[in-house]
Amino acid sequence: MIRGLLAMLMMAAFVQSDPVRTVDAVDLTRYLGEWFEIARFPNRFQNACTGDVRATYTRRPDGRIDVFNRCRSTDGRLIDARGVARIVDARTSAKLKVRFAPAALSFLPFVWGDYWIISLADDYSWAVVGSPDRAYLWILARAPAMETAQLAAARAAARANGFDVDRLEMTPHGRVGTVLAQPPSPSPAPRRRRALDPAVEHARVHHHNARGATSRL
Fold first, then answer.
1. What predicted TM-score, i.e. pTM, was given to this entire model?
2. Among residues 132, 61, 150, which one has the least CA distance to residue 95?
């Protein structure tokens, strides 16, 4: 039993020392668009986000990518964050840097965070994103929920890359994408008033004006 435990510890240490691997190539045109957060490692940047987390990626004319993140807080408010991403590995497009700090601070290296795509479904229906130090991990999908087999595949890919998937916390979804996505109910058509005889209408208006004058006294 002790030998088995030591073997497991040695294997874990080996995996952790192995560098994080990204996918071989990413078609960014297919990758752009809206993603729902399915699970994540707890992190201080998202402490206020309790659910309904989504991200939208849009190509910019300069080749970079606009990032728009949204989540819901405990009191029901929507929290938005806008950032920008740049590709750091043009060969694979799987390694990016993202910043949410003002553009004036973009020259500072520490305002850029690593965004490595370490697993990606063939049909781009889900993705696993992490950092090279294994401190951050996200499972994303094109829909607010994943099939059991898909989620298992995403977790397995992260585990094979040395991430402690037991740290993952599932992200609840409910209001964003369902209630908020429903179109507003059409306003009821205005009621048409029946035409009155001119004499009757004159008497009604005269009576209304007389009552209004009395109420303002």
1. 0.72
2. 132
